[in-house]
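B., you asked whether I could sanity-check this one before it goes into the benchmark set. Here's the sequence:
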Amino acid sequence: MYYLLLALLFTAASSFAGLKLDLIGVYHTGVYGQSAAEISAYDAATQRLFFTNANIGEVEILDLHDPAHPLKIGHIQAEPYGAEINSIAIHNSLVAVAIEPRPKTDSGTVAFFDTGGGYIHHLPVGALPDMLAFTPDGRYILTCNEGEPNDDYSIDPEGGISVIDISQGIKHAVGATASFTKFNSQEADLREQGVLIYGPNASVAQDIEPEYLAISSDSKTAFVTLQENNALAIVDIPSASIKSIVPLGFKNFSTPGNGFDPSDEDGGIHINNWPVFGIYSPDAIGAYEFEGKTYLVMANEGDSRDYEGFSESVRLRKALPLDSIAFPHASELLKEDALGRLFISSHLGDADHDGDLDAIYAFGGRSFSIRDSAGLLIFDSGGEFERGLAGLLPAQFNADHEISQSFDKRSDNKGCEPEGLALGKIKGRTYAFIGLERTGGVMVYDITDPRAASFVTYKTSRNFNHVLPNEPTRADMEAVVELGPEGLLFIPASESPTHFPLLVVCNEVSGSVTIYSIQATE
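And here's what the prediction gave me:
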């Protein structure tokens, strides 16, 4: 009854906003659990949807004239420019693709194509180019070069941001790198401020791993999430230089409104406050303006370094002992139905270096945040995601994205795991669409006024009743519809083939692309 009441309150709070999401189309790749649908981009002139299929090293091209029946009409291959396609962006019918090499620690490539898949040009960028985006004015394209290490950590390339000037034409594109090397001498200060730098034998530039970026409306500044570092980089685009690295701080799960369920072995839904700090570690980021100021929206997924040569994730009960002064009831906290099974960072918590934990740091914020252009926290959704899901999906609370019947399975590890993000304007108001990687579905918030963001609706088309076998068939994937939302794309009504706004969701586990029509109901 308690969580049913929460669901009613959660829904009632959105009634004034009046948005309705309807599933109108699905494209199935037929590939399960192999990242066959991750990131998408749309060309309004041809009404074509492009999405990355990392499983086969391609971008698939769909005709979206009829979104209810998306039809594959072509593809773009990673070869001979690299091994795997990580991201895609389109501006004025110019298609840019970020391509990862093999091995991933080598320099990557950005390749340009027309909307028919015809090759135009390519040029090198840094190691492991991930997210890429055009500036609003179309002059530059930027890539996040993540620079992940190899598995034994014997090679750790530098992370960076490639800034490619295409103002003189693609064939005359000029690339520059916004490097973090100037911060190598500032490592101690960055650590003191809260930037997480701890890869084995890594310099600051090697340890920095740019994940996702957003660009200001004037095309001059980029804001880049440094996910594993729990930080934000602010980039001056024209000079291709890093202006600053801003630590994002930690979420206090002991404060009112920030409760969460930390155990997958507590026999139910138990959302409470706990003496835990959350490492925001945002993945996707978006930028928008309100009253002439730029605000940043972040999906606080959380992430840990997990390699053969270095892994930081450990269950609390297997970590360092809890300090008896900081945690006088340690034995109770370490029970499996309390915090014992919670995954935490082995790198943080022993502030006085005496061999015990003075604080507990878990991965992720289980939320989304809004920050100003300097990185200052303006709004956080607190524990609303978990409280809402407890009421709306009580039988699938904190479910995993690979097992149909997996109630509470992810409570010990980042919960519903907000990851993907898209921003869009509908009838003069700004909305954030946040994809929940594990539970599935999309949370929608009205963020027009960043200090008064409010829940609008939650939508999922995941069929929890379809039990997946060990080797799912295409029919199984079609039955389950969507699993593991990765990338989200908002198509405004002015560019939509239906003249209604659309939301495109790429689901990496089910290998499907789901297309939602958005209607204002007020």
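One thing to flag: The longest strand covers residues 19-28. Otherwise nothing jumped out at me.
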